[in-house]
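Hello Y.,

Per our agreement to keep a running log of every chain we model this quarter, I'm adding this entry. I've kept the format consistent with earlier entries: sequence first, then predicted structure.
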Amino acid sequence: MVKKVTPLKWLVKTQSLEILGPYSQEAIEKLILEKQLKSVDCLSLPGSEWVPLGKCKEFQLALKESLPHAVEDRTRVVFAHPQPAPQTHQEKPQNVHRWQTPALVLSSFLIVLFVSYLFLFHKNRNDRSVNDLEKNQKLYQKALLLEDIQEWDKASVVYEELKSSKFQLSKIQMHVGRLEFLKGAYSRSQNTLKSLLAEGVNDKTILRDIHLYLGLNEMMFEAYVEALSHFQRAIQLDSKFLPALFNTGVCYYLMSDLAQAKLYFETYFLNSKDFEPHLYLGHVYRNNREFDKAKASYERALTLNPRWLDSYYFQAELLTYVFRNTTDALAVLEKILHFDPMYESFFRKNPAYYYEKKLLSWSELARIVYNSSDKIDSIQKQIRISYFDTLMGKKPNDNLFALATRGLSSLSVSLLGYLKYFMQDFLKAETYLKHSLELDPKTFLSLLYQGRIALQKRQYMEAQQFFQKILDQDEAYVEALWSLGEVYSLMNDLDTATYYWKRALEFDPAYIPAKKSILSLKPA
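Predicted structure for the entry above:
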């Protein structure tokens, strides 16, 4: 019979790390015998290390001899031989406690610090992202405003800044291509838009606009078939996209396919509140020799936008060549002078809006109308023709200015004064303008430029009176409204100035000087 192991006090550790004990060997045996201790992981003396069991043959044999069934039946009971603990086993935990506690606190502090850093880092990055997004959105709106007032070079700079920040690259690239088109760089615009198309654009709105401006570029090169394919693609993406539908009609008109042009304009634009479709309907009817319908369409265009001077021009042409009514044609042309004496300069820089190339220039038409009018003497005809020639960059005949003493009409003298103003000879301009107002105090052109000369001299009250005299007779005269706003602006009354500028835009939403003035008041 094997000698029993000397009874010792043992700690018992279960799989769940619960400490049972300390127990003596006999107590452990009793627990095993009573099957209260089902799963023993390891045994240890108090103060000693926990040691994997299996090498304690004496204890195994002792238990096997006394309780053989306990060893055989239980698969999870493991036996261990106690390792002697160091003599300083009572002090060791104290020493360990003294240095482990600060280390734990330090570790916890570092963990909290690291987590806080990560939180703040992501928060700052998110804040920067939000700020960058807001900044880019403001820049984008600024670029659109600059486009609207035709400050295209400045708009290009803003778009380049947005591209460098990678803000909505596809949309910005589309705007760059459109801006190049508006500036007349048609080949560059085409290359920009085609490159963007090749990159693969998923946004249907951007893709639709790309095809629109690719079509317009093709129209500039008179590649009408290619233009139509782009317009049709834009319509496939958006069946109600009016710019593509309108330009499809224009394209057919320029291809002399009047039936298709008429179909598009009458189907989509017969009741349109936009003036341009009615302008082109007038062209289609005129070419179909439906002259009454053409005249009605031009008049409809003028009703919708009385400041669109091309409508007067086409109406005057129709009256001259079809109805042989040069008197009414002359009256229509003089409405152009009433609204904008600089019209021919605009017409020269933007020849034949929407690529109309088959008509005579406004100056040529004016010559025909004036030379066929019985109500204008030869001297007045020369002055008026010289006026148009000057606007087209030709030097006027100096002898004409000597004619102002020969009893000319107020408008003729006013034209002479404007010619001098246009040539920046303000002293002589003022002389002619004053003489014109002596002949007729209601000559708008003289009142307008007398007011502008007074404004240059900082004679604000006098300038205000000139502009107000115009508005007393025509409240929709936007040049006078804008000029009056400039007077109040120079007098530091910005609220009143803004009122007049906005009033000008109510009558002519496309009037660029008023847009620029309002924009100048906004912070950059």
